[in-house]
Amino acid sequence: MADALRLRARLRALYHGASPAAVRFRYAVILIDLAIIAFFVAAPLMHRHGMTFYLIDYGVAAFLALDLVARAIAHGDLKSWLKKPITWIDLFVLATLLFPAWLFNFGFLRALRLWTLVNSEFFWRTVGRRYDDTRIEDIGRAAASLVTFIFVVTGFVYTSFAGRHEGVAGYVDALYFTVTSLTTTGYGDVTLPGIWGKLLSMAVMLGGVSLFIGLIQSILRPHKVTFPCPDCGLRKHDPDAVHCKACGRILAIPDDGL
Known about the structure:
This is Potassium channel family protein. The chain is built from 11 helices and 2 strands, in the order H-H-H-H-H-H-H-H-H-H-H-E-E.
């Protein structure tokens, strides 16, 4: 029992602490995560390499399994941890790694790992710990959503149409179709057949344009700082705000520049 408590305390300090060692640990995990996401993106091209692909696949599965177990222990409340949508997405990604032969057609959903990483408190507690504004976080989340959307759709198109339709001969063709549809360029040299192909094309246009507009808005949005109002709880304020614009409470927003 004592060993279990010490392990939980140690993992909580690493995953949630502010010490230099904890920050270095989280940076290392994030860098490994980014390398894993790069593997997910390249997986459709690597699958033909057989045993090498499966060795990497199971190595990634082992890392993700250990990471998920460690996060669950560090969180403390397992039921609360399992209620998070991000947790279930990561568990599904792990399942596609553990059973690649059976769930290969769902492998394109592994790109969702990028979305879960950038939208996690773990990521922003590490990368954004020195920022008191939300602009970088908003841009990061919007960019991650757009990139994730592109690679999920590309993977779906590649899995569903490559080799079955002459317009999509490989992964690059699937990516080309996704980007041209998303930007509504529509050159017409790569199209998807049938009603389902048209419906998918429309979904890519609508979803992609919405995410792209969201990214532009986050870039052009005025600079804000995160400072919760003690009365109404409003979190975002102008850097030079004296009063909360929602309830009028006098604020004392720290200014490191003074």
